[in-house]
Amino acid sequence: MNRSSPQGSVSVEISRRRAAADPTQPTAQPPSKLDMAGILASVGEVPYEWRVDSDLLMWGPNVGEVLLISESAAISTGRGYAQFLEAENAQARFDVVMQSGRRDEGNGVPYQIQYCIRPEPGSATRLWVEDTGRWFAGPDGKPGRAHGLVCVINERYEHERRLSYLARCDGLTGELNRHHLNQVLEDTIDQSLRLRSSCGFLLVAINNLGRINESYGFDIADQVIGAVAKRLRGRMRGKDTLGRFSGNKFGLVLRDCTSDDMAIAAERLLAGVRDEMVPTSAGLIAVTVTIGGVTAPRHARSIAEVLARAQETLDTAKSRRRGSFLAYRPNIEREALRRENVHATDEIVAALNERRIFLAYETVAIAADRRPAFYECLMRIRRTDGSLIAANDIVPVAERLGLVRLLDHRVLELVVDELIATPALQASLNVSPASTTDPDWWAGLGSLLRSHPGVAGRLIVEITESAAIHDIDETRGFVARVKDLGCRIAIDDFGAGYTSFRNLRKLGVDIVKIDGAFVHDIMRSEDDRAFVRTLVDLAKRLKLATVAEWVQDEQAAQTLLGWGCDYLQGSLIGLAATARPWLAAHAQAI
């Protein structure tokens, strides 16, 4: 459709030529002109021309059919037409044309705008229209006249509004989704900083939603979520903003809110949810929520800090008492630990990148003649100042920060390098629980052992007893995989976790290393002496080799040998050192 020429005749030259070319065909009688008004009305469009200087507004003959305005005289001027526009419109045609700021270079200036009209005062009928046109300048260069088409777009507008709604809101509850809730929170924090005021954020979690899912089904859980959203909205202030934060959590942004205001709001929300059972299609269900809150900028100055501290406080509230509210409070020890974690993370990552991970070697000797049986390889980190950090000082931190698998992988590489360099060497290494299920660690172990035949038979993998008893079946799988590769398995610190020998036999390990805390005082403690002797005796019955850790003196060594202990480790034999002890032994032999 040519919108710039809404009326006119259509040429029939092509039909005439076809008739002349074939005289046997009957001559067609085409219409003299198209029914433009009917066509425009059928597609919901009406043309207009607006004389800006006189405000005269002329419409096509189908205006009543399209705009549903019975009295065309009422819209014969721009001012008259404006009376039918809804007050919610951001702009009208007058604004777009008269405030354009553009110049007419001779071809007119195009414009397009959407607005809403109400055909009859007080009527529920509303029409969303798209007004597309072009204005032309008068002698003074200002808009003198305009023409165009008004098209009814109710269906398209509703579709676009639905898409906009889905982009902003959660489909289940109708509240803001997390992205837009975060935007509101960020804007509120910025405003509070700018105006030196206070705001709050509440993170509200529905308790036991997983149990509701399992007991009643996901559709019932969805009904609960929707009901909780309505109850929260019914108890919040009009100037605050509610949004769905995640599956069972809502976020509430509180404007102009002090700590006391936040506590009052939280208690109101708690009561609003718990005081009455939630009706669902499966019956009444008792529902409670737990709330963690933080005020900004007093206790957080960015959206990242607000969200992190609200989640942390919510977790603490859940651990103390579900169905309660807890406000964030600074904790000096907690903040110090976090700073320490950040520093430790930087130090571990830097040590890995700069190849400052080293090994220290501690001899495990045969109890009968004190000859070295194998060497336990222990990790050390060399600081930039040259000092060393022991494994016991760094591994717990690395486990907490999720970095221990990287350290384990590097230690594995270093130990295998030593075994390759010294064909007669036998060595052991410790593996953290996190690495036992890490695909990258397994891939590294398998790759190294396949690349260097003969190494596996000289490598002993040590796992702690506490890790072994955490999941016996999973540990059995780990032991089987390691032994399939040709390595031996030792269970370290045995006795500390009081593992039953039934489980020990089930694991299928090769060596039992008795926890040094029991060995250290066997000459002074009757209880320790009885306990260690029992362990050694039972291990022998299961045909497992035993290593006694923390052996301090000759008397303890002789006692352990008399009980049948196979190997000794501790200060009597030699503590861990970065110098390779087998090289020193070789030099003495020469």
Describe this entry's structure for a reader:
- Helices cover 44% and strands 22% of the residues.
- With 590 residues, the chain is α/β, with parallel strands linked by helices.
- It has three domains: 13-158, PAS domain (Beta-Lactamase, 2-Layer Sandwich); 172-330, Reverse transcriptase/Diguanylate cyclase domain (Alpha-Beta Plaits, 2-Layer Sandwich), CATH 3.30.70.270; 341-589, TIM Barrel (Alpha-Beta Barrel).
- An eight-stranded mixed barrel has the order 13-14-16-17-18-19-20-21, surrounded by five helices. Strands 2-1-5-4-3 form a five-stranded antiparallel beta sheet. A five-stranded mixed beta sheet has the order 7-8-6-11-12, with helices on both faces.
- α19 links the parallel β18 (488-494) and β19 (511-514).
- The relative contact order is 0.05.
**What's the number of helices?**
23
Q: What share of residues is helical?
A: 40-55%
What's the CATH class label of the largest domain? Answer: Alpha Beta
CA radius of gyration: 41 Å
Q: Would you identify the regions where 5 or more consecutive residues have pLDDT less than 50? A: 1-29
Instruction: Please identify which CATH superfamily of the largest domain we are dealing with.
Output: EAL domain
Give the overall pLDDT as a whole number: 87
- How many angstroms separate the termini? 104 Å
In CATH terms, what is the architecture of the largest domain? Alpha-Beta Barrel
Number of domains as seen in the coordinates: 3
Structural class: alpha/beta
Count of distinct strands: 21
Query: Could you say what the CATH topology of the largest domain is called?
Result: TIM Barrel
Overall outline: elongated
Strand order within the widest sheet? 13-14-16-17-18-19-20-21
Strand content is 15-25%
Largest sheet: 8 strands, mixed, barrel
